[in-house]
Amino acid sequence: MSVKKTRVLFLCTGNSCRSQMAEGFARALQGDRFEAWSAGVTPKGLDPRMVRAMAEAGVDVSAQTSKRIEDLPLREFDYVVTVCDRAKESCPVFPGAARMIHRGFDDPPDLAAGAADEEAAMAHYRRVRDEIRAFVEAMPASLEALVPDRARSTAAAITGFLKGMN
Questions:
Q1: 12, 22, 87, 143: which is the annotated catalytic residue?
Q2: CATH topology for 6-165?
Q3: Choosing from 91, 100, 111, 123, which is the catalytic residue?
Q4: 13 and 104 in contact (C-beta within 8 Å)?
């Protein structure tokens, strides 16, 4: 009997760096528990420095592709994790019971833009890579901890509404 894997979509603006790292780590480290995907609002292609940083960590993402949400073969996920603020703001509505989570990470290309040399640029990629790895290693607890407490927020909304009626 096969166990259904939890479907996770990592979403960012360009699907070139952070969401690709998260997908790569989820497949490599948690592939027995998670079916991982990544997409972008406006894909830009894989960032070569990201591919290099992931290879240094023992994860080959060179065959992954930068894709739009519409390009995904499935549209129902258990979790949709936005890894950048712009993706969070423009995140589409997903059918089904997907839990929307935002866990922002710094953008390595932006950080590296002011680097003095290639090694200094790569240091930014490595730092963000390691942060994403720690997040993925902590899944699923990290996902559940980031899901807003719907019952509490619903109760607060009802209480606020009822107080306004008085």
A1: 12
A2: Rossmann fold (3.40.50)
A3: 91
A4: no
User: Which of 22, 61, 84, 132 is the catalytic position?
Assistant: 84
Outline where the chain has alpha helix (H). Answer: 18-30, 48-56, 85-89, 108-112, 118-137, 141-146, 150-165
The residue to which tokens 């703001």 are assigned: 89
Q: Verify whether residue 17 is a known catalytic residue.
A: no
Q: Where are the domains of the chain?
A: 6-165
The band of 10, judged by pLDDT with boundaries at 50, 70 and 90, is very high
Least confident of 28-37, 45-54, 154-163: 154-163
Rounded Cα gap, residues 11 and 104, in angstroms: 10
- Report pLDDT for 89: 54
